[in-house]
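REQUEST FORM: STRUCTURE PREDICTION
Request ID: SP-0412
Submitted by: Lab K.M.
Chain count: 1
Length (residues): 133
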Amino acid sequence: MSLPPGESHNPVSIDSISPSVPPTTGAGDQKASKELEYFELDRQIKEAHLEELRQDIKERKKYASRIFWSVAGWVILTGVAILLRGFHGTKFWMLTISFQVPDNVLIAMVGGTAAGLLGLLLTVTKYLFQPRR
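STATUS: Completed
RESULT:
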C-alpha cells in the first residue's frame, strides 16, 4: 500500500495519543475539573494494572524456567536410579555396578515422582489458565 504523493509515513505510538478529555464550558468549571480528575485517576489505575500484568508475566517466565529445570533434574535422577537398579551386578571393564535398592523403595520413588509431576502440572496449569478478572 502506498501513500499519496507528498505525505510521509508517521508511526503512531501510545505516547503520541493525547487522552480524550471532554471539552469544558465556562459555567461548569468545577464539574469539568472533577471530570478531569476522574479521567486522570482512571488513567493511573489502568497504568498500574498494566504494570502489574507486565510484572506478572516476568515472574511467570522466571518461575517457569526454574520449575522446568527442577522437574528435569528430578526425572533424570529417578531414571538414573532405575537404570542403575537394572544393571545391578553387571561388569563394565573393571567396574562392577553394585547399586541395590529394594523394590518397594524403587516403586515409591517412581510413584512419588509421578504424583509430584502430576500435582505440579495441575498447580501450574491452574495458575496459568485462571479466569480473567
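NOTES: Strands lie at 91-92, 95-96.
Reviewed by: T.R.
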